[in-house]
From TrEMBL:
<dbReference type="Pfam" id="PF04397">
    <property type="entry name" value="LytTR"/>
</dbReference>
<dbReference type="InterPro" id="IPR007492">
    <property type="entry name" value="LytTR_DNA-bd_dom"/>
</dbReference>
<feature type="domain" description="HTH LytTR-type">
    <location>
        <begin position="28"/>
        <end position="123"/>
    </location>
</feature>
<protein>
    <submittedName>
        <fullName>LytTR family transcriptional regulator</fullName>
    </submittedName>
</protein>
<dbReference type="GO" id="GO:0003677">
    <property type="term" value="F:DNA binding"/>
</dbReference>
Length: 127
């Protein structure tokens, strides 16, 4: 395999870290981008960014939400969420949340982000 083929092979993967809550150590892992449903932060400062996968696994990631929103097919929907649009199944207008194909988890859609993504959101079924 040539070096160029090797680079192409890994472009669809992202380095993430599984957090061992007992020891507080992180274990590196490559995850396929299409397996990621969304990225989110659970603190107000955005210091901890999590990648949530289609198996509901949760991984730490060492990038900002702004950087992650520049990945192909990923869109920022709220100050705390960047969503993999290919994983979106529908939209709940009552709660302003995206619903996903492979997970019961939901992602918020903030007002200003709704305006920017309106055509994409309105193309989704209302659930």
């Amino acid at each position: 395999m040539s070096e160029e083929e090797r680079q192409i092979e890994y472009i669809d993967r992202l380095l993430v870290f599984k957090l061992d809550e007992k020891t507080n150590e992180t274990i590196p892992k490559l995850v396929v981008l299409n397996d990621i449903i969304f990225f989110s932060t659970d603190d107000i400062d955005g210091n901890r960014i999590w990648a949530i996968t289609d198996k509901d696994d949760k991984y730490l990631i060492r990038s900002s939400l702004k950087e992650l929103s520049s990945l192909p097919g990923f869109y920022k929907t709220d100050r705390s969420y960047v969503v993999n649009w290919s994983q979106a199944k529908g939209y709940d207008p009552k709660w302003n949340q995206l619903i996903f194909k492979t997970s019961a988890k939901k992602a918020n859609v903030g007002g200003s982000y709704f305006k920017a993504l309106k055509p994409k959101i309105l193309a989704l079924p209302k659930l």
